[in-house]
Amino acid sequence: MGDFFTKLGINWPVLVTQIVTFIILLVILRVFAYKPVMKMLDERSRRIKESMDQAESVKEASARAGEQVKKQLEEASREGQERIARAARAGEDVRQKAQADARRDAETLIERARSEIQRERDDAIGEVRREFADLTVLAAGKVIERSLDKEQHRELIEKVLEESTKQKKD
């Protein structure tokens, strides 16, 4: 068999030396190249995993922030609606108060007008009585053809008018 390998051009000492050299090279590559490359790949894998974890936590934080913003917007909207409702109630209160004040002012004016009308009516009746008394005294003086005491006749006429007013009321 040794002859067979020789015919193929295989030199045993060179082959053994090359196999030993190859094994030494594999050991050296494993120690100096494979382990550092594997360590570097593991480190890179770890950093990628950390980046993915960070991205996931950022995504979760973003979702939480979005929910928080949504809640704040809902709260602001609800507060705005409450403020609008309070303003509407305040406006209604002001309107009702203004109506009540206007009614009260109108009633006061009507009462004042009634009092003024009553006073003017009483003044007019008094004036008519005085003029009637003067006319009666003048007419009586003409009828009797003598001048009567104006004051006595006026008192007499006032007394008769008061009695006739009392009789009308009874």
List the helices and strands and how they pair.
Elements lengths: L1 H6 L4 H133 L5 H20 L1
Describe this structure in a few short sentences.
Helix content is 94%, strand content 0%.
Name the features.
170 residues; mainly alpha; 3 helices; 94% helix; rod-shaped
**Whole-number tally of structural domains:** 1
- End-to-end CA span: 170 Å
Number of beta strands: 0
Q: On the 0-100 scale, what is the average pLDDT?
A: 84
Rounded to an integer, what's the Rg over CA atoms? 64 Å
The percentage helix is over 70%
User: Which class of secondary structure composition applies to the elements?
Assistant: mainly alpha
Question: What does the overall shape look like?
Answer: rod-shaped
Described by strand count, sense and barrel closure, the largest sheet is: none
* Poorly predicted residue ranges: none
- Beta-strand portion reads under 5%
Helix/strand order, N-terminal first: HHH
What is the overall number of helices? 3
Task: Give an overview of the whole structure.
The chain has helices at about 1-5, 10-145, 150-170. The chain is mainly alpha-helical and about 170 residues long. The protein has one domain. Helix 2 (about 10-145) packs across helix 3. The radius of gyration is 64 Å and the shape is rod-shaped.
